[in-house]
Structure formats: C-alpha cells, structure tokens
User: Which sequence fits this backbone?
C-alpha cells in the first residue's frame, strides 16, 4: 500500500507492505542509514526515532501507523551544520565509543527533554531504557543533564 | 608542551560522525545494483549424524537464486584457526544447535530467510553433552590439558596453618555487540573478491576465505571501516559469515550481503567460555598464601575456535595480583555440544581470577577476617615470580591498592557500611576490593607484530593505514595522535584509512588489548623514517650543512629551536619535487618476549597492567535485588596518551564485568538449545543498573617502554574490576545471613541472592 508521512521535514510517499517495520522503510526504502537495527524486538532501542515527537522503536512499529505523521530520524535532529543540544552534549561529554547505538539514545533523549525539560536521575532511569554494550551510561547521564542545560539556555 | 596536552585530550575522532548518524558500518554501505542477500539454515539438533539435506523446496521458492551446502565448497570446508576442527557448513555430522548447514541466496533478505526455513536436514540424534566436567570424564578434550607449576604444592601443604578447598563457577557471556555479525562481498576482476566484514581480524577472514575457496590470499581483499562493538565476539566468529558471502560471490559472480538478525546471531555464535573449577588454598598463621592449587574445566563448546588460547590465559592469570610461592594449576579445554565458545574481553583471565578471589573469600570467612586483609598481605612485589616464570617488574599492585584505600578512605567506608548494617534490617550493604593484574601481549609470541603504511600526499596531508580495527576502543584516535605527535602537525592534516588487507597485510586481530601498542609502534617507526627524510630535504632547502638541530614543530621547520619560514606543506612539496619518497612502511615486533610451551615458562608479556577497585553495593533483603552505590578505581594507565578515551574504557569495561557477574544469565537446556536467545531473555546492564557513581583515578606511574608513548594498554583489564561486584554482594548477603555457605557461582542474579539470603 501507499503510505505518506513527513520525514525530517520532507513529505514522502512510500510503497510498502503495511506491516513492514518502519525501520526498514527508513533504512532501505529512504536510504537513511543513521537509524540502526539492534534486536528486532523493541528491546535495545538502537532503532529509536521520533514519531510526532514521541520516541518510537521503529523495528517494531508497522509503517501503516506512520500514515500522516511526522517522523524525525537522527539525520533530521539538527538543522544544517548546527548540532542539536543533545548532539552537542554528546560530543562535549565524549559519550560514543563504537557509536552504533548512539543515534537511538540521542533520539530517546531528545524526546525526553521535550517532555521533561530538566529530568532528574529517576526520570532518566525511567525513560532512557536503551542499551549500550560499550557501557557508556555514566557519561550518557552526564550528557543528558548537560543537554538539558544547553537547551534551556 | 601545549601541543602535547592537546593531543592527550583529543576527543574520539569519530564523535561528529557518530552523533549525526553518519558513521558507516557494514550494513550501511551502499550496495551495488543486483546485490543478493543470504540466510543460513542451521541445525536444530545439538549433536547428530547429518544424513541428508533436502533443499528442493527452498530452491523452488520464487526469488531464490542458489542454495549452497558443504558439497559446493571448492577448497577446504574448514574454518578452524588454531585446530582445524570446524567446517564452514556441516558435513556428515552436526556438533551444536545452531551449526550452519546451508547458505541460501535470494533476491531479497525476506525471501532468503523464508527459504532457509524450508530446508530440511535429516539428522539422527546422538547424545548431547553440555557440562564440561562430564565432557572431561568422557575424554572429550579439545587439546591435551595444560599445567603451570611454581614451587612444590605437594610439599607446601605441610607448611600451611589453614587449608581450604571448594568449587567456583562462572557462566558464559553473550557478546551482544549491538551491531550484529555481517559481511558484504562482491566480485572484482579475474575471479578476485572484495569483502567488507565486521571483523576484528581482517587477515583471519582473508586467510579462511582463501582456504575455503581454494584461492591464494591475494585474491581476497578484506576491508573494515569500523565495528559496532566486538568485545572478542568478532575476533574469530566474524569469519564464517564473510566466507559464506564470498562462497556465493565465487559461484554467482554477483554481490552478496548477509547481516544476521539478533536471534540468529545469538543462537549460532559462541560466547565467553563458561568455567567450573576446583580450588585448594593454604595460608600460614600470618595470612600469607603459601600454596594454591586450581583445576579449571573450560566449556569450549563444539570446536576449538580460540578456546586453547583462552585456556592458556586462564593459567597465566590464575594468581591475579598475588604472589604465591607454590602453585599447581591445571586446565582442561572440554568439548561439549554448545556453539564454539570464544574470545571475550579478558580472554580467560577473568575466569581464572574469579577462582582465586573465591578461594580468598572462603578462607576469609572461615578465619573470620576480611578478604581485604588476605588480599593486601599477598600483593605482588618487585621481583616476585609469576607461575609462568616471568618476574614482576615495576608491579603496581601495592601502589594501586594503597592509593585506592587512601584516596577513597576505605576505613571510613568500612565504618559506614557497618553502621548502615546495624541500623537497617531489610537492606544490607557490602563492599569488596578487587585488585587486578593483566599481562599485555598476545600469549602466542608470533602474533606480537604489526605494520603501518603512511602516505604523505604532496599537498602535505597524510593518510595512515594500520592493521588496527576501530571498534569503539578509540584506536584510530590514538593512531592519529601518534602521527600528529611525531610529525608535529595539526590533527586535521591526518586521516585514518580503513583497515584493508591490501594496504597492511598479515595482521594480527585487534585483540589482547595490544592493538594500540603494536600498531602505534609500527606507525611511529614509519613516521620517524619519513620525518628523517624530510629533515634532510629541509637542511638542503635551508642551506644547512647538517640535519642536526632540524625539527618540525607545530607545522613549521625549526633549526636549533628557532622557527624558520619553511612550513610543512612547502617542505613536503619540495621533497616530492626532489623525488624523495613520501610513503613508508613501519614494522614492529615486540622485543624481549618469549614463551616455551614445553616447559610452560618464559617471559610472555611485554608488561602488566595493575589497578584496584572498591565496590559498594546495597542489597534489598526482601527482594534479592541490589544497587551498586559506587565503584571507585585507581588504575595504572602508565602515562596515558589519551585520558578521555582511556577513562571511557575503564567505565565501559567495568560495566561489562559487572554485567557478567550479576545480570547476564546464559541458559542452555539439556538438549543444547539456547534459551536466553534474545534481548528479551538475556539482560545486559542498562542506565538503571550501572553503579550510581564511578570514579577513576590515575595512578602515578611511569608506564612501560613497550607501551605506545608509555601509555599502557587499557582494553581488557577493567572488565575484571567487575569481579568485585560479586564479592561485594556476597558480603552484603552475609551481613543479613551470616550462616550462608559460600557459593561461588556467578552470575549472582537476584534470584540466587534471594536464595542465599534465606538458605
């Protein structure tokens, strides 16, 4: 079936089986490779994108649900050369090691900050439930707090 | 000095690509037109005779291009590295649940996967062994057992006032690199093949592909941009998938890609080797350890893979940071019907170290003293001999212990924990110290060599190729630092190229924590040779009679410390115009190391890395759950060349070690089927479960000449700080239930904690 949505500000119409996970439409259909496959069970969060501003695990989100909605991927998080506060904080705290899971974490964090601009550690524990095997969590927590500050200023 | 400082705090050079989602992993490479996709049909029986493979239904599925089995292998159907005991595709027998039997290639990934399900393998089941002790009883050993001996334990028991024995076990660990295994290959001219692989060992992929296809190595080019995590899981086990796509390319002359789905990856690949061990420890009245015996039963899985080398490192690290004058340690690599187990950060070292820590904990409990007291009294001192004959040179065991206990006020912590435990009934705190000592070098001496290729382009920009694979450990950042520091030019002038077998050949895998040392030293040699040639050119340009006193500093030629008006770019261009070579290869082989396996003695390590961690935990004695309040570490980085990258390795390694010791529960059933087969059934640490506070201090230490810029290797050692988590929990449990009998069976999951609290 034909499905239309906005992705990173551009309107797109794709032809896909309605139950195709959004992840594969984004990666293979639209060629946006920043969103990653990790587990296929919505457990790891490497595939996190925003749909209408909320964090969604695109490996387990049928593309049909995206009809008429607005999707943001890591490629659309920042405008032009300017980094989004989350990306800026990630660079400043030097969070990434292998980097593979990081786009998902940043998309989840950006969604969290829209919902809770100054998250507490408990808010972070409850909302940032992705996994990073390099174990960058300690810096990530610092980066989330830093991003909140950058965003506020 | 300023420049040097900037280098030391250089951020991961991939940071900007990573945060924009622009970094390229195997699955992100733009595929060529006509690319086909692969899928594996693997065994659903852990042991049996493979009578027949029916591929007709799969072949008939529209979109299927080919189905390959062992019969289609033109060369040798063999992927075993250390011992040739593992076929690429099963032939006649299957030895583990998940063993690849056939490789399907189709127009799309979905079709390939559907077709793989349609293949029918007729297998007559044979008895399945999953337990290493049972395997040993039945004589199922991968290789002859190994024994390290120091002194004479049999005689030493007489001198011991206290002798304790017991068992200790550690489960395996799923690597769970978030980027699953995968490879993409396509035909080049004249029957050659180019492979993009997510591998820590490009040469292993090249060599094995050549062997399976019956081609010379030069027909196979392997290229690696970066890995989305490896942790040892892509040292040997990235190979089969790369060989399979190459096999398909060889037959079909079309591009073929195969990226594993998570459950396929978890089912078909091996893990950290589970171990079960027996120990016996003897102490004198002053709590000095006089004798130690250990017998290790390694669960190797169905084939050797890297297990014999892992086993060896267990023996090398069986006494951790302690000096024990009488040691007998024997290790059996036991063949079971699990997927072949393999390298995982620490490579057998953690498994060996857990056992002596268990022995010390058992002795401490029996004697009514703290384990820390026994640990401290037995720390290695300069000149002490390891069981393998090497002497401890500049050991930092005592210095890091003292620094940690002082810096983090151990006395205060002990009082705080006691006071908490007196005041609280349902929550108890515990703490533990974990000293580490880890030898740096591949224990197989010949692997301690590396090469680097440096091109200076005639516009002054520099391209660097080494054998190092970037997998998050920051090795490319360190390589850039080496070139920038030797040339003394801006970081931006230097580019790290992909790791490619046509540019740097015969590489050792990126493993054993030694990647930055080996490749960095080779790179330093290449850069110095180039710089020497450029200095001659500079002397000519400046009409000097000699090169003495000529240097390059921050992009400008200096003479006797005075800046000239000759800059790097002009110098390089002049060298080119004078037809001076601007390319160089550096070769490095670690000096002074050797090991004689017939005697089990030698000097296998370039140096050792030390450190001490203090772990504090709070256990919920109603639920059996726990929270790590803090882990505070003093680590021997030597003279760290990049404190940001190095600290990140400590933080991440610690978290992985805690995961292994606490949450990560690998589970196979008696039929050899993996039950913890997805991220929903296998729990790794998340932001909620990691320590609330992690502190890492740099030990004041000078480092080793055999470390790149005296900056000691840092990849694996911190994982072993995680072992402290087990003993901290045990101490908290004891505060609640002093009667608990010591069970040393990691991981200490909340379920096991609950049992221990109320046993």
Assistant:
């Amino acid at each position: 079936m034909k499905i239309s949505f906005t992705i990173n500000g551009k309107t797109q119409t794709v032809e896909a089986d309605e139950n195709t996970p959004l992840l594969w439409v984004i990666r293979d259909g639209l060629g946006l490779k920043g969103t990653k496959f990790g587990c296929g069970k919505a457990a790891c969060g490497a595939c996190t994108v925003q749909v209408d501003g909320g964090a969604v695990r695109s490996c387990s989100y049928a593309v049909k649900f995206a009809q008429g909605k607005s999707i943001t991927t890591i490629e659309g998080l920042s405008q032009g050369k300017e980094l989004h506060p989350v990306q800026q904080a990630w660079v400043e705290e030097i969070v990434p090691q292998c980097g593979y899971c990081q786009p998902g974490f940043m998309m989840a964090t950006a969604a969290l900050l829209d919902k809770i601009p100054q998250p507490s550690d408990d808010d972070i524990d409850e909302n940032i439930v992705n996994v990073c095997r390099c174990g960058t969590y300690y810096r990530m927590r610092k980066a989330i707090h830093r991003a909140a500050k950058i965003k506020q200023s | 000095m300023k420049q040097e400082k900037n280098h030391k705090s250089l951020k991961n050079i991939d940071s900007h690509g990573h945060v924009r989602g622009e970094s390229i992993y195997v699955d992100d490479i733009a595929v060529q037109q006509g690319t086909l996709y692969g899928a594996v049909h693997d065994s659903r029986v852990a042991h049996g005779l493979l009578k027949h493979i029916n591929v007709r239904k799969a072949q008939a599925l529209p979109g299927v291009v080919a189905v390959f089995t062992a019969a289609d292998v033109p060369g040798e159907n063999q992927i075993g590295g250390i011992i040739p005991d593992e076929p690429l595709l099963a032939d006649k027998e299957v030895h583990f649940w998940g063993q690849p039997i056939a490789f399907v290639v189709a127009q799309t990934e979905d079709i390939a996967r559907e077709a793989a399900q349609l293949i029918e393998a007729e297998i007559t089941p044979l008895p399945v062994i999953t337990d290493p002790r049972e395997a040993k009883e039945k004589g199922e050993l991968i290789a002859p057992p190994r024994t390290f001996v120091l002194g004479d334990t049999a005689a030493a028991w007489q001198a011991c006032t206290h002798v304790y024995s017991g068992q200790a076990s550690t489960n395996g660990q799923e690597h769970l690199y978030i980027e699953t295994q995968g490879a993409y290959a396509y035909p080049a001219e004249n029957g050659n093949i180019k492979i993009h692989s997510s591998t820590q060992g490009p040469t292993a992929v090249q060599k094995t592909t050549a062997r399976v296809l019956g081609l010379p190595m030069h027909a196979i080019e392997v290229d690696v941009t970066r890995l989305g995590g490896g942790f040892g899981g892509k040292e040997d086990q990235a190979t089969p998938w790369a060989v399979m796509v190459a096999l398909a390319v060889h037959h079909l002359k079309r591009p073929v890609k195969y990226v594993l789905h998570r459950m396929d990856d978890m089912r078909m690949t091996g893990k950290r080797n589970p171990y079960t061990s027996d120990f016996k420890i003897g102490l004198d009245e002053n709590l000095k350890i006089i004798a130690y015996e250990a017998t290790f039963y390694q669960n190797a899985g169905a084939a050797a893979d890297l297990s014999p080398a892992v086993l060896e490192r267990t023996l090398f690290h069986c006494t951790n940071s302690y000096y024990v004058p009488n040691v007998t340690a024997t290790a059996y690599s036991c063949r079971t019907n699990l997927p072949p187990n393999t390298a995982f950060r620490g490579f057998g070292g953690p498994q060996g170290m857990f056992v002596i820590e268990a022995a010390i904990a058992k002795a401490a409990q029996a004697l009514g003293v703290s384990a820390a007291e026994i640990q401290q009294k037995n720390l290695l001192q300069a000149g002490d001999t390891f069981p393998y004959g090497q002497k401890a040179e500049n050991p930092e065991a005592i210095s890091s212990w003292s620094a940690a206990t002082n810096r983090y006020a151990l006395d205060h912590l002990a009082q705080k924990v006691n006071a908490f435990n007196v005041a609280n009934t349902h929550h108890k705190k515990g703490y533990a110290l974990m000293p580490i000592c880890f030898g740096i070098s591949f224990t197989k001496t010949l692997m301690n060599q590396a090469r680097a290729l440096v091109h200076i382009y005639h516009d002054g920009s520099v391209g660097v190729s080494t054998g190092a694979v970037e997998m998050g450990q920051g090795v490319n950042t360190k390589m850039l630092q080496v070139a920038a520091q030797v040339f003394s030019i801006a970081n931006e002038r230097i580019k790290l190229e992909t790791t490619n077998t046509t540019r740097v050949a015969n590489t050792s895998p990126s493993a054993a924590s030694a990647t930055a040392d080996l490749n960095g030293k080779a790179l330093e040699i290449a850069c110095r040779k180039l710089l020497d040639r450029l200095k001659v050119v500079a002397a000519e340009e400046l009409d000097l009679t000699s090169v003495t006193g000529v240097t390059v500093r921050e992009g400008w030629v200096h003479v006797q410390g005075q800046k000239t008006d000759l800059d790097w770019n002009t110098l390089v261009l002049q060298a080119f115009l004078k037809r001076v070579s601007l390319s160089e290869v550096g070769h490095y082989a670690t000096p002074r190391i050797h090991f004689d396996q017939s005697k089990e003695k030698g000097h296998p390590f370039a140096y050792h890395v030390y450190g001490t961690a203090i772990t504090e935990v709070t256990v919920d004695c109603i639920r059996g759950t726990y929270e790590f309040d803090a882990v505070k570490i003093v680590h021997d980085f030597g003279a760290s060349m990049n404190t940001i990258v190095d600290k990140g390795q400590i933080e991440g390694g610690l978290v992985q070690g805690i995961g292994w010791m606490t949450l990560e529960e690998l589970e196979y059933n008696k039929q050899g089927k993996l039950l913890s087969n997805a991220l929903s059934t296998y729990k790794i640490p998340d932001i909620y479960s990691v320590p609330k506070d992690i502190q890492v201090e740099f030990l004041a230490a000078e480092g080793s000449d055999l470390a790149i810029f005296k900056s000691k290797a840092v990849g694996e050692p911190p994982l072993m700080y995680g072992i402290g988590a087990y003993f901290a929990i045990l101490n908290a449990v004891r505060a609640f239930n002093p009667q608990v009998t010591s069970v040393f069976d990691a991981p200490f999951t909340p379920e096991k904690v609950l049992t221990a609290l109320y046993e």
Remarks:
- The radius of gyration of chain B is 27 Å.
- The CA atoms of residues 482 and 524 of chain B lie 6 Å apart.
- Chain B has a mean pLDDT of 97.
